[in-house]
């Protein structure tokens, strides 16, 4: 099993009602190019993280065709909201529309045991949209501070759910191992491989966790507090931003996965 990520698909139906080549010729037929790469590299057993700005639609029913396009692609898909995803609705409405074809994560987290080339590994992942950070040239404290604070709370909630999900997964696998080994519950704890299985924490955001000067933020503080291994985000579309994002911040690896930054290919995270 492999893990991939991409953001900022900016779909608008077929044929597109808002062709992205208005932002430059490098966007020509961008969805076709993404699909070709996706099909060539992703299997149904793999995981694909979609970090926001999926559709230009304003309502969920208008976004349905774009979401169904995404759902038709290989892999288990997990999606967070971007700043342009105005169609985003309640969890129930989105589940009713898409079933289990896409899992919508917004302020939530989960964990899975996966098999990699190096062996079994627990991955914990979750996240939220995030927001502009203080110190950014576009950040206006009077209007933006409350949104920033709210997104920090949602991010921490997702990180807490990730930790809880890891604990629950270990307990579940431990209990099942005991049952499979003995046929009955044991009174003494059994030391099994799951307790030595490495855990990787992946934080999904739409906005980067840094301002334009790459100074610490509430998001980077959370990454440090919760020992996030990799932060995956999009949103950025200009060469200056592409060049200024560091490869890591503290002990957290940073992965920018805007579709145009990736030349319209999915990024293999692990």
From TrEMBL:
Keyword Magnesium among record annotations: no
Signal peptide: none
Domain Calcineurin-like phosphoesterase: 1-238
Keywords, comma-separated and alphabetical: Coiled coil
Source domain of life: Bacteria
Ranges in a coiled coil: 152-179
Keyword Coiled coil on entry: yes
Protein name: Metallophosphoesterase
């Amino acid at each position: 099993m492999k893990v991939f990520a991409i953001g900022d698909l900016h779909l608008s139906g077929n044929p597109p009602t808002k062709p992205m080549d208005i932002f430059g010729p490098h966007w020509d037929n961008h969805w076709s190019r993404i699909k070709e790469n996706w099909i060539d590299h992703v299997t149904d057993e793999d995981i694909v993280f979609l970090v926001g700005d999926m559709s230009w639609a304003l309502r969920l029913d208008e976004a349905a065709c774009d979401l169904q396009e995404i759902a038709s692609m290989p892999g288990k898909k997990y999606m967070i909201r971007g700043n342009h995803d105005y169609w985003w609705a309640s969890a129930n409405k989105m589940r009713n529309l898409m079933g289990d074809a896409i899992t919508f994560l917004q302020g939530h987290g989960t964990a899975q045991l996966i098999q990699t080339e190096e062996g079994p590994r627990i991955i914990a992942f979750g996240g939220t949209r995030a927001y502009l950070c203080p110190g950014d040239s576009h950040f206006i404290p009077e209007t933006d501070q409350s949104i920033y604070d709210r997104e920090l709370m949602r991010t921490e909630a997702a990180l807490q759910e990730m930790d809880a999900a890891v604990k629950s997964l270990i307990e579940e696998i431990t209990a099942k191992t005991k049952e499979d080994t003995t046929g009955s519950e044991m009174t003494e704890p059994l030391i099994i491989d799951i307790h030595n299985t490495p855990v990787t924490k992946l934080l999904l955001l739409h906005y980067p966790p840094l301002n334009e000067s790459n100074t610490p933020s509430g998001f980077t503080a959370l990454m440090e507090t919760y020992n996030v291994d990799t932060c995956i985000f999009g949103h950025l579309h200009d060469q200056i931003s592409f060049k200024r994002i560091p490869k890591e911040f503290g002990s957290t690896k940073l992965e920018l996965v805007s579709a145009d930054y990736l030349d319209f290919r999915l990024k293999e995270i692990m």
